[in-house]
């Protein structure tokens, strides 16, 4: 019997090393995308930004992607290679981040207008590379993990991104120490490190391509421009693409404003107590110590999903879950009195509950989708949690409901992506996946661009009569109207997830089945 030749893809260690290397760039770009959320108050006091200008800065990040930049990147990926797209657009994101950092340091000149303008220029360049980097990461995982632990691998990759978001929101104020520029420089440096990690990954990618060419003599299906129109004619793909728009429009923009909402609505603080409570010092650094807490929670999330999955006997699985749970409770208990209880009265730290929820739950839900399926049903459940979260945070004034809303949003932010991104690989042929993911990110960016800016604009408009008093510190922002409008996005998400479930029953994509299993079309 002829022995089947193995490739790097068949080695579990090689697969996961590739994932880690690609996820480094994902971590850095998500950090740079979201770290401003913890600095809104400081940017208003130090730089003189208004809520609308803050919204404009983060909103225009997506402008190039709204007009097709991601689709161009996806086509480059499908036509040429993961390496070409990753290096080109990862480099663009790095240059844009560097320009933003230089603007924050006053390199292009002093003054409010020039600083804002050049920071926007840098953010637009960064954003032009950001979403293609996400497409590259997602497409890379399909390349290495299809037929293996695809949903779990995607969940872990998303976990790296959410880890970047959570730490950035939690510690950007610690890094800044009253000045915005150091936080911007640190965030830009992380993207550069991620790009170096991707360069190392490229060595593995070249070797895998050579092995695939040796193993398979079949000609590779070439990408054609008409493939884009085939995607747009596929109802299931359009349902999941617009679900992506509606869901993320209600999450990512909210994350940027969540710290300020908690400070204004519930009286939380921007700064930790001067007596040192709420801070962990590691190697002389408060930022590093506080970040270590979030990394530890992420590690527990990985342990909950990956350790039991690698134990064969049911009894062993239950024991491992029990041990990890006890260790997690002890870890939280050891930090509760002097650290975590203080965090829960701090705007940026409490807002990090959203990505913290994804860090803990996304790997668990990804593993569940791999083993049990039910992807479309999970998207419906996640959309319901999204509605509850925004109602709790907009209509009611209960701090307890506010905490529950943030936690619900974190769980929803885990459920929907863990089910949605692997589902695309079932709906779309692999030769068009780069373009498919790029199209989804493009559609998503229309929602992000509108709501990043829209929340800030509506916030100023709904508080128009009190703006002078708010800026003088005599009154606070009322966030009810801008957050309540996000509930509509949740309702739309439920409708689209239900339509996707109906379409799957007819087309037989197998969205409700475990990874590796295909459905049977209904006659």
Write the layout of secondary structure elements.
Blueprint: H1 12-34, H2 40-47, H3 51-59, H4 63-66, H5 69-79, H6 82-104, H7 112-145, H8 150-176, H9 180-215, H10 226-232, H11 235-249, H12 252-266, H13 286-309, H14 314-343, H15 347-351, H16 353-372, H17 375-394, H18 399-427, H19 433-462, H20 467-471, H21 480-484, H22 487-507
Helix pairs in contact: 1-7, 1-8, 1-9, 3-7, 3-19, 5-6, 5-7, 5-19, 6-7, 6-9, 7-8, 7-19, 8-9, 8-13, 8-16, 8-18, 11-18, 11-19, 11-22, 12-19, 13-14, 13-16, 16-18, 17-18, 17-22
Structure description:
This protein folds into two domains: 8-208 and 223-271 and 346-507, MFS general substrate transporter like domains (Growth Hormone, Chain: A, Up-down Bundle); 272-345. Helices cover 77% and strands 0% of the residues. It has helices at 12-34, 40-47, 51-59, 63-66, 69-79, 82-104, 112-145, 150-176, 180-215, 226-232, 235-249, 252-266, 286-309, 314-343, 347-351, 353-372, 375-394, 399-427, 433-462, 467-471, 480-484, 487-507. The two termini are 40 Å apart. The relative contact order is 0.15. The model has no long low-confidence stretch (mean pLDDT 84).
Sum up the overall morphology in one term: globular
Helical content stands at: over 70%
Kindly give the count of domains. Answer: 2
Strand fraction band? under 5%
Radius of gyration: 22 Å
For the record, the CATH architecture of the largest domain stands as Up-down Bundle
Q: How many helices?
A: 22
Largest sheet: none
Task: Give the averaged pLDDT, no decimals.
Answer: 84
């Amino acid at each position: 019997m002829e022995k089947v030749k193995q490739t790097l893809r068949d080695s579990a260690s090689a697969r996961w090393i590739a994932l880690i290397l690609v996820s480094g760039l994902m971590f850095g770009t998500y950090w740079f995308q979201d770290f401003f959320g913890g600095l809104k108050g400081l940017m208003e006091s130090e730089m003189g930004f208004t809520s609308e200008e803050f919204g404009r800065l983060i909103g225009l990040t997506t402008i190039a992607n709204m007009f097709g930049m991601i689709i161009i990147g996806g086509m480059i990926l499908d036509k040429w290679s993961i390496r070409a797209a990753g290096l080109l657009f990862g480099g663009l994101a790095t240059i844009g981040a560097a320009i933003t950092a230089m603007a924050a340091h006053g390199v292009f000149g002093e003054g409010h207008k020039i600083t804002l303008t050049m920071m926007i220029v840098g953010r637009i360049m960064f954003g032009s590379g950001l979403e293609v980097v996400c497409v590259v990461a997602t497409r890379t995982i399909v390349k290495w993990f299809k037929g293996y632990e695809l949903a779990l691998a995607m969940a872990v990759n998303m976990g790296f991104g959410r880890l970047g978001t959570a730490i950035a929101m939690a510690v950007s104020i610690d890094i800044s120490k009253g000045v915005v520029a150091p936080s911007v420089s640190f965030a830009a440096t992380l993207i550069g490190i991620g790009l170096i990690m991707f360069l190392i990954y490229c060595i593995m990618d070249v070797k895998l391509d050579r092995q695939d060419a040796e193993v398979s003599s079949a000609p590779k299906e070439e990408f054609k421009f008409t493939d884009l129109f085939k995607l747009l004619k596929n109802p299931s793909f359009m349902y999941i693409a617009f679900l992506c728009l509606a869901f993320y429009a209600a999450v990512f923009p909210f994350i940027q404003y969540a710290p300020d909402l908690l400070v204004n609505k519930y009286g939380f603080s921007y700064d930790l107590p001067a007596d040192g409570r709420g801070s962990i010092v590691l190697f002389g650094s408060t930022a590093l110590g506080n970040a270590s807490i979030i990394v530890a929670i992420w590690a527990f999330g990985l342990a909950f999903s990956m350790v039991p999955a690698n134990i064969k006997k049911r009894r062993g699985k239950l024991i491992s879950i029990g041990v990890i749970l006890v260790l997690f409770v002890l870890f939280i208990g050891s930090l509760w009195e002097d650290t975590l209880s203080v965090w829960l009265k701090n705007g940026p730290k409490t807002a990090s509950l959203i990505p913290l929820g994804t860090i803990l739950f996304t790997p668990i839900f990804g593993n569940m989708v791999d083993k049990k399926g039910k992807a479309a049903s999970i998207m419906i459940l996640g959309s319901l949690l999204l509605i509850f979260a925004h109602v709790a945070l907009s209509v009611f004034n209960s701090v307890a409901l506010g905490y529950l809303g943030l936690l619900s949003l974190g769980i929803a932010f885990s459920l929907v992506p863990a089910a949605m991104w692997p589902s695309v690989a079932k709906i779309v042929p692999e030769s068009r996946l780069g373009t498919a993911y790029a199209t989804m990110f493009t559609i998503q960016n229309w929602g992000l661009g509108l709501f990043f800016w829209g929340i800030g604009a509506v916030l100023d408009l709904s508080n128009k009569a009190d703006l002078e008093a708010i800026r003088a510190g005599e009154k606070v922002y009322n966030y009810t109207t801008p957050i309540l409008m996000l509930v509509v996005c949740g309702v739309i998400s439920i409708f689209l997830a239900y339509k996707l479930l109906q379409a799957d029953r007819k087309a037989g994509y197998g969205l409700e089945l475990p990874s590796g299993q295909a459905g049977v079309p209904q006659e």
